[in-house]
Specification:
Keywords: Cobalt, Cytoplasm, Magnesium, Metal-binding, NAD, NADP, Oxidoreductase, Pyridoxine biosynthesis, Zinc. The protein is α/β, with parallel strands linked by helices. The chain is built from eleven helices and twelve strands. Helices cover 37% and strands 16% of the residues. Helix 3 packs across helix 4. It is globular and about 60 Å long.
Length: 331
């Protein structure tokens, strides 16, 4: 994920949970990217680490000139302070407002992309009656989209879970032909338009162990997944599977596809976090704008200690920039 060439508009970064590592890794990312990938932070400047050079802005465009000297901040006033490692529900409305402001700016064209720092869902539920399973679903709601796709991307692997934040017991009844068809279509389009892959190669994992092993370990593959994969394999899209998930992620297998579609959350996230934990990026496909996020949580246990690794946020910002550049070139 190479960051090259400045965009005409900066990237917006929503603050996420202020008691987590978000403020710390934001400053570390700014220190590395301030001259090559201008962005600004939406949040309460009181929550940033002490001695952070801050430039308060009123409009996103100001960040383009200021980012090289100080971290541009579009300020919001939160109700609470930020005690590292201890989420304060009083800050939840401000966290939600930061996301909403970022979406408003990217939809208006004032910024080139939106990057989101990690949130703490329980704090949002306790303090703001947050009604969504996670960032992805909330962004879909704000954008008015009934279906979006969560992709986890790194230099080693791209994966898409067809079902996301639901119990494992709910996966077989949630995973329908209609759902899988939409996930495949959105993933293929995203690979083409946002990753610049003209003829995507997508591998589909089986739902059951050994992809059902001819019906001995489950019927879904025989009942409909095999036929759906065959139907959607076209001149514009190379679609293979369903593959046994236990042999889909070694290096030789990964060389034959651009992304793998998995049937449930852990089937997708375990391999990418094992292969490339520090550089994984969460990308939401199917939105009318570019959104990336680091592929980790708030890490309350190390918040404020200086130990937080900013690599995933750095990769998220760089990927947002490269996707926005590609979109500008196509436009």
């Amino acid at each position: 994920m190479i960051c090259s060439g400045l965009l005409p508009r900066p990237i917006a970064l929503s603050c996420g949970e202020p008691a987590g590592i978000g403020p710390e890794i934001t400053v570390k990312a700014w220190q590395l990217l301030k001259k090559s990938c201008p962005f600004f932070w939406i949040g309460d400047p009181r929550h940033l680490p002490d001695d952070t050079p801050v430039a308060l802005i009123k409009t996103p465009n100001e960040a383009m000139d200021l980012c090289a000297q100080a971290l541009p901040v579009l300020p919001l006033q939160f109700a609470g302070s930020a005690t590292k490692g201890e989420a304060d529900p009083k800050n939840a409305p401000g966290v939600v407002q930061s996301i909403e402001r970022g979406v408003e700016l990217v939809q208006s064209g004032a910024v080139s992309a939106l990057c989101t720092a990690p949130i703490h869902k329980k704090a949002l539920i306790d303090g703001a009656q947050f009604a969504f399973p996670g960032h992805t679903e909330f962004l879909a709601h704000l954008a008015g989209r009934s279906r979006v796709v969560m992709m986890l991307a790194s230099p080693a692997l791209r994966v898409v879970p067809a079902t996301i934040h639901i119990a494992l017991s709910a996966v077989p009844r949630t995973l329908t032909p209609e759902l899988l068809r939409e996930v495949i279509a959105i993933t293929a389009q995203g690979l083409q338009t946002q990753f610049g892959i003209a003829h995507p190669r997508i591998a589909v994992a089986g739902l059951n162990p050994h992809a059902g092993e001819g019906g001995a370990m489950g019927q879904e593959e025989l009942a409909w997944i095999n036929d759906l994969v065959s139907e959607l394999n076209t001149d514009q899209l190379t679609l293979t599977g369903p593959h046994p998930a236990d042999t889909l992620f070694h290096a030789r297998a990964r060389a034959h596809y651009d992304a793998a579609i998995c049937m449930y959350h852990d089937q997708a996230l375990i391999p990418i976090k094992t292969l490339d934990f520090d550089r994984g990026v969460n990308v939401t496909l199917g939105l009318p704008f570019i959104r990336t996020s680091p592929d980790h949580g708030t890490a309350f246990d190390i918040a404020g200690t200086g130990q937080a690794n900013p690599s995933s946020l750095i990769e998220a910002l760089k990927l947002a920039q490269s996707m926005a550049q590609r979109s500008t070139q196509q436009g």
